[in-house]
Amino acid sequence: LFLATLTYDTLRFEYEDFPETKEPVWILGRKYSVFTEKEEILLDVTSRLWFTYRKNFPAIGGTGPTSDTGWGCMLRCGQMIFAQALVCRHLGRDWRWIKGKRQMDNYFNVLNAFIDKKDSYYSIHQIAQMGVGEGKSIGQWYGPNTVAQVLKKLATFDTWSSLAVHIAMDNTVVMEEIRRLCQSNVLCAGAAACSALESDVLYNGCPEDVGLRERLTLWKPLVLLIPLRLGLTEINEAYIETLKHCFMMPQSLGVIGGKPNSAHYFIGYVGEELIYLDPHTTQPAVEPGDSGCLPDESFHCQHPPCRMSIAELDPSIAVGFFCNTEADFNDWCQQIKKLSLVRGALPMFELVERQPSHFSNPDVLNLTPDSSDADRLERFFDSEDEDFEILSL
What we know:
The chain is of the alpha+beta class. It is built from 12 helices and 13 strands.
């Protein structure tokens, strides 16, 4: 196994450049041309936070593993999709990372939330230990649904980002549920917190003339994760057009999934190929430098990204979207409704105004073994996320 990993790691660096094609390249809601915008494509990809296997980090739980090679790939993909949400929240979708350029503090605040140590909000330590509560022992492989559930729980501690995280189960997005979650009151504790929030809110494009208190109570930025199963053993090709459209939406956070037991973070597509960031490279854990500044180059993939045929995608995935404002969410709903009219595109999930009566309410679901909704609970945290309702033609 060690040899296989080593060989795989060394081969990772023989990357192909983008194909010379007239087809547009879509990266997380942005459209590019290979002929005129190759530099912009690569800069956009390099600017995404790239999390890979690491070695020699502090032992998880004090006595556990010091590396996640061989088991942490889906956890790293969960970190990447969530980091993209934090980048959109604190830096904006237009932000770019340029090697050697001094970055703003908010960038390092985002990066520090994922560093491999026990007190980072979304560290591998936090994800692995929170997973124990979901029946996953440390070092066990996660599916897309499990990592989404764990990240949702961890986000409640991240008061700086103040995100509303919603996981749409049963292939159904309930608008009423999301509005209730995002419109919950956000009250300020002290003037310092208010001024920090104010600069964030203004940075995120809110008009300055709206009262701060009003802006803070209107809408918590939404991270929407939708675990799906798009076929039995391989992806049903009827979903491919819909999947492509997800990468075209400005709210796109991409997709986590991959091939069986080998997770990738998909950030776009060109033609019939998905573009992805691959966590299967082991890098040494990063320590802050003498100045307290974090060396960050290893968190940015500085070669052309990997590509694979859409047909090879494992059918078990989670699709992510970020809606910074209520207008973003309303726009997203309109796009999803329009998508249902596209010929040859089978909807991957249903968008409904309110909870169908036969569903339990996930916001009040009691996630304990004595929950009366035991069958649904089991589906939440099953071992390989194989239990989703199969979407059929």
